[in-house]
Amino acid sequence: MKHFLSVGDVKDINALADQALKFKASRFDQKSLGEGKTLGMIFLNPSLRTRISTQVAARNLGMEVVVFNIDKEGWQLEFADGIVMNGDKAEHVKEAAAVICQSVDILGIRTFPGLVNRQDDYSEHVINQFVKYAGKPILSLESGTVHPLQSLADVVTIKELFKEKRKPKVVMTWAPHIKALPQAVPNSFAEWMNAWGEADFVITHPEGYELADKFSGHARIEYNQDKALEGADFVYVKNWSSYKDYGKILSQDLSWTVTEEKIRRTNNGKVMHCLPVRRNLVIADGVLDGPNAVVVQEAGNRLWAAQAVLSELLKSNK
Ligand code: AN0
Ligand code: CP
Hints:
Layout: H1 13-25, E1 38-43, H2 49-60, E2 64-68, H3 70-73, E3 77-78, E4 91-92, H4 93-103, E5 106-110, H5 118-122, H6 125-134, E6 138-140, H7 148-161, E7 169-174, H8 184-196, E8 200-204, H9 213-216, E9 220-222, H10 225-229, E10 234-238, H11 260-263, E11 270-272, H12 285-288, H13 295-316
Parallel strand pairs: 1-2, 1-5, 3-4, 5-6, 7-8, 7-10, 8-9, 10-11
This protein binds N-acetyl-L-norvaline and phosphoric acid mono(formamide)ester.
Phosphoric acid mono(formamide)ester (CP) binds next to helix 2.
C-alpha cells in the first residue's frame, strides 16, 4: 500500500479489518514499527474524530505526530497551475507539499470539496497535488469524494457486531440536513460495501440524490425509505447534497429523519452514523440514546482502523 486514498489501495478488506480488530484487542502489538518516523496531519477543514483517533493510532505504533491546521494557521494555499499569484493566496501547493515532506514520513490530509465545481471536486485535484508534489505516502483523512478511514471503521463495526452465517442487510439512508454536505462519506461507504461484497446492500434517498455510478455500483436503489428499511440489520444514516444538481439541497423532507418508528421496521437494526450528527434532524434523540445506536462504538473503531492503515503504510514504505 503506497498511499491510502480509497478502497482501491486495499488488497484485502477483510485482512485489513481483522488487523484493526487485532489492534483493538492488543493496541501495542507493533509499538516499535513506527519508531523514528513522523506522521504529519494537515487539516484544510474541521475534524474531531479523525484528528484524535489518527494521532493516537500513530503513537500506538511508536510514531511522532505533527498536526497543522493549515486552514487557520498556515499561508493560504494556491492549487491552480500557471496562474499569477496576485490574489489572497501566498503559497503554492508545489512548495508547501514538498517542504512539509522534508520533515515527515507519511502525510495525512483532510480536504472537503467546494461543492461548486463537480469536475474539480471529482478529479480530487487537491489531494492529488499532494500526491504529486509530496513524494511521500499520502493518507486521506477525507478528501473531495471519499472518506476511506471512515469506511474501514464502518466495515470493522459491521464485522464486529454481525455474527450470523448469512449476509447482513445494510441500508444506507439519506436524511435531511440544513447544510449542503459532501458526498464523500456515502460515496466511500457504498464503494467499500460493494468491494467487500459481504452484505446485501441497499441505498435509499429521495429522487435527485443518486450518487455517481462509480460509487453506487451494483447497489440496489430504493426510493421508498420505509420499504428499504424492512428487515435491515444495519441502518447507515447520512445526509449528502445532490451529485446530479451538484452541491444543491433538493429536499429537507423531515419524514426522512430516522426515528424510533422507522427503526421498528428493521430487524432490530443497528444504527450507524459517521458523526457529527444533528439530533432530531438527521436522527431522533430516541434512536441515538436508545439500544440500537452504535455510533460511539463506530467512532471508537476509527482508532483501530487508522492504526491498521498506518501499519500497512509503514510496512510497505520502508
Ligand atoms: C462532513 C461530511 O459530511 O463530509 C464530515 C463528516 C465526517 N460532515 C459535516 O460537515 C457535518
Ligand atoms: N467522522 C469523522 O470523520 O469525524 P470528524 O470530521 O470529526 O473527523
